């Protein structure tokens, strides 16, 4: 249950970040999230820890615990400010 709540929180953060540039916030479903990630509009960072990440995560998500030292290299350069 905690993993589901954490995943939903991460999804909300991803949606907020992606839409904050447009100054509007809305709902997003799983298919739209996958498309936004595939299109490079959303970068999903999993902060649940590496053990949880290994058990399961959204494909394309970044394992923060494992990648935090190199996180800047993994983020889209056009989104860095």
Concise synopsis of the structure shown:
By secondary structure, this protein is mainly alpha-helical. The chain has 5 helices and 2 strands, in the order H-H-E-H-E-H-H. Helices cover 52% and strands 5% of the residues.
Characterization of the model:
This protein is mainly α. The chain has one domain (2-79). Helix content is 52%, strand content 5%. It is built from 5 helices and 2 strands. The chain has a two-stranded parallel sheet with strand order 1-2. Strand 1 (45-46), helix 3 (50-55) and strand 2 form a beta-alpha-beta unit. The longest helix has 19 residues, at 2-20. It is globular, with a radius of gyration of 13 Å. The N and C termini lie far apart (35 Å).
Secondary structure blueprint with pairings:
Layout: H1 2-20, H2 30-38, E1 45-46, H3 50-55, E2 62-63, H4 64-67, H5 71-74
Parallel strand pairs: 1-2
């Amino acid at each position: 249950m905690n993993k589901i709540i954490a995943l939903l929180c991460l999804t909300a953060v991803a949606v907020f970040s992606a839409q904050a540039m447009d100054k509007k916030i809305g709902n997003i479903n799983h298919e739209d999230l996958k498309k936004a990630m595939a299109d490079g509009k959303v970068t999903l960072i999993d902060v649940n820890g590496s053990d949880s990440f290994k058990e399961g995560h959204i494909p394309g998500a970044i394992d923060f615990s494992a990648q935090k030292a190199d996180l800047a290299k993994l983020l889209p350069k056009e989104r860095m400010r």
